[in-house]
């Protein structure tokens, strides 16, 4: 008989994150997964404190929330030596080569792989080793960003689409397999068009969809300067006026977020300390 009261959450008033209590990664059933999924859809971000799972447990757990997506960094320096499902985010080096992605640098606000036709639905990040300070991860709700728009901005985004170029990454490096574009106008480069306001396929709530950077983004049909000005206002509203949850990592913590209604960023940290995170990513739908 299923135990319907085993899994619960504790929420501290922040709009975007709740702690999961009572979930046992060694022994869970379908009802436990259903409860986690309900809370995941409700809050957007879940935290499992000091879970300390194995890679195999993380992979098995992730399968309950969708098929795996290979993150682009897994094709470069972030591939796991044994598990293709895991992206290694680390600042460690072996034989002069990075053994993980991202090093110790800051990662600015973004939605994961926003330039995909079907961006991932979610991600699960497990802290294998963490520095004594730094490397915090911040989360915000893009539901809240949309729902708190001033009336004039709400009207401005209504029915609009946004184009994202996918030739260069946020650091200005060519993405894997891409070539230097011939045109200086990024609107003529390879890219993808998504709605500026997307509707979550499960909750049916609306959320702003800003991607990962203003540069290389264009609100379709607008003059470029007007598009840039509107995007600056939307980014400012989203990242400066939202309630933000800050995850200060302990070893073993797991963060699980819904990529369809949240954004996140990471602080830099002292490179003399080691930070190793294992991430699994689950498939999503084309935004509508």
TrEMBL record:
Membrane-spanning segments: none
Family listed: Belongs to the TfdA dioxygenase family.
Taxonomic source organism: Pseudorhizobium tarimense
EC numbers, comma separated: 1.14.11.17
Stated name of the protein: Taurine dioxygenase
Gene3D superfamilies for the chain: Clavaminate synthase-like
Higher taxonomy: Bacteria, Pseudomonadati, Pseudomonadota, Alphaproteobacteria, Hyphomicrobiales
One term of GO molecular function: taurine dioxygenase activity
Family annotation (Pfam families): TauD
Highest taxon of source: Bacteria
TauD/TfdA-like domain: residues covered: 18-281
Alphabetical keyword list: Dioxygenase, Iron, Metal-binding, Oxidoreductase
